[in-house]
Structure formats: structure tokens, C-alpha cells
Design a protein that fits this description.
Blueprint lengths: L16 E5 L2 E5 L11 H9 L9 H11 L6
Antiparallel strand pairs: 1-2
Length: about 70
């Protein structure tokens, strides 16, 4: 697949990821990329040159949630 069009999508950043589960596709992204705006060209460049290790994944989210739990918390 060369391109994926996201109809009726909210804003996404260049490090967004996608996850397929029983409920269908889910878009995963950082909550905040800081201040500023990107042109379409800048977004495309950052997307093409992004570090795969920084792309948001289900495993990344689950790890962050575990690390955020207080000791002994459920």
C-alpha cells in the first residue's frame, strides 16, 4: 500500500501509528507535539524521515500506562 487516506480524521502528528484490533483500525498518537504548525510539505518530510522507534504503538502506550501506575496500584 502506498497511501492511506484518513477520512474525517482529527489532527495527527508525524509520529502517529495505527493498530488493528477486533474493533477495527485505531489511530495512535502523542497528545502534544508542542507549539507551532507544519506545512503539508514539512509534515511529509518529517513523516518520511521519522524514527521508527518513536512511532506510537500499542506496546508503547501499554508500557507508559504501566510505568505511570503507582506502586501497588491496580
Amino acid at each position: 500500500m502506498r497511501a492511506y487516506i484518513i477520512p474525517r480524521s482529527g489532527f495527527i502528528g508525524p509520529l502517529y501509528g495505527m493498530d488493528l484490533s477486533q474493533g477495527g483500525w485505531h489511530h495512535l498518537d502523542y497528545a502534544d507535539y508542542g507549539d507551532g504548525e507544519l506545512s503539508d510539505e514539512d509534515f511529509a518530510t518529517r513523516y518520511r524521515e521519522r524514527d521508527p522507534e518513536k512511532v506510537v504503538s500499542r506496546a508503547m502506550i501499554e508500557k507508559a500506562q504501566l510505568e505511570a501506575k503507582p506502586e501497588g496500584g491496580a
